[in-house]
User: Fold this.
Amino acid sequence: MTSATTPGSTRREPELVGQTVVVIGGSAGIGLETARRSRAEGADIILTGRNPQRLKQAAQELGAQRTAAFDANDAASLKRFLHDLPTPIDHVMVTAGGPHYGPLLEIEPEEARRGLTEHMLLAIHVAQSASRKVRPGGTLLFMGGTGGRRPSAVLGIASVVTAAMPALVANLALEVAPIRVNLIAAGFVDTPLSASLLGEDLDRRRDALRATLPIRRVVGPADVAALAVHIMINTALTGATYDIDGGQQLVAR
Assistant:
């Protein structure tokens, strides 16, 4: 005897219902896509971004609970924002900050300081303040990269940050437990930031990746967002680095 499948019987329930996700740098690119996917999973969303107009548009699209426009690398503004967050929240994802490239012997001291601050010190500041707001089992989730793992005379600070972030995240995971801390290490992701960095070389870069990556396509923000939300949902994950680069590390440059 066979049993009929009732319509909708395979439908999956949203997995972030009743939870609050904060995305620092959530008005575009990976941050916005993660907020979008978190909302689809039933979460309430809090967004920050530097561009007030873009932030407003993102908030309207997602029905964000609240927003704050500021530069995440302004320590005073970041601390004030985190202090004012409602309690409790469940997940904080940080996508703010961009890469800094250039030979170490040529980089200006202020640029070197900014290259370190925009990732490592930002992660420390978020952990210091947000860990008081996040529920046990919740997540602090940071972004790193895979491109700087191979030494290069032109990567400079980017290689230093790439090497340091996994160790930083692992140590934070021990210090703030049972809150979980994880790192997503991405290769090239087709975002507005990538477009601004590459300019006229963007299409050439896309074509090269489609031809050489094992997945035969370019990684997009939705790919990273899917991983981010999985890390939020899976409460067994902490202190780890999760690569998402379409196999870019496997291909000779």
